[in-house]
Amino acid sequence: MPLDRATETYLRHVAIERGLSQHTLSAYRRDLAVFTSWLATAPMVDSDGADRAGGASAIDDVGRLARADVSEFVTHLATKPDGPLAPRSIARMLSSVRSFTAFAAGEGWLPLDPGTAVRPPKAPMRLPRAISVEDMERLLGAVSVDADDPVQLRDKALLELLYATGARISEAVGLSVDDVTTLSDDSAPDADGLAVVKVTGKGNKQRVVPLGSFARAAIDAYLVRARPVFAARGPSTPALFLGARGARLSRQSAWLVIQSAAEAAGLEAHVSPHTFRHSFATHLLEGGADVRVVQELLGHASVATTQIYTMVTADMLRDVYQTAHPRARR
Hints:
The structure is a single chain. This protein has 330 residues and is mainly alpha-helical. The chain contains 14 helices and 5 strands. Helix 3 (67-79) runs antiparallel to helix 4 (87-106). The longest helix is centred in the N-terminal third of the chain and has 20 residues, at 22-41. The protein starts with a helix and ends in a 6-residue tail after the last helix.
């Protein structure tokens, strides 16, 4: 099967049989065009290590594809003289190629799938961006609360809840009024009267997170003086946070609340909804919280996911050590 005809057959398959969107189909077409163009011009190496003739005749039939071709293509993308691709871009392009080679093997054009054992380069670990406790206090204090302004009361409650619970923005706007409650447990008298919020995370997994006094006060003020105003403007809904028309507050609107508060606080660092989550975890660990407790509060399935925050707080440990240890200073 000629390579160009094989790719067109594959693209028709994913368009018709799998019903992919036009956007995804265009991305597959672009990625495979880069792959086939490279196959036609790059010097190839057979599996036994011998040079394969370069030029357009190098690979013009899908049946001649080998694992070395896919592997060398990944290396080419990572070392291009005109600018190597980022690991994420390479991973996306390799995914398109592997999908094609798997289809080709399934059609019997290839004895084995040459792409199945090729792995993309690992993306560099990105440390979460957190702001300092002082900057968070400035941000939360930037929302001036007028007792008669429902928007200000709502925004204050939303921001306080995000920082108090470490909830994702989707989790926060997905809360219902009944998700905010007070514990009453005779078996744990120390927890009796503790304000908590029941958060539904990924995979519909639920977790219970305590609410600090600042967050609870802001939410109480919002529920009493602001939410009824919003609720009167739209259909009945159990949503905790409501928009101007009485419907559940959208993620986009919540994002704008955060951006407005960050600008009012004069913060130079970029602040996103996830900044609250990262700051929540980082500040807890800096305060001495156990990483497993933070794992439960964040709703992480594995403690390994939470341990990335310990890399952030390592900077603080280094500074303390260099300041306090007599043999650390030079």
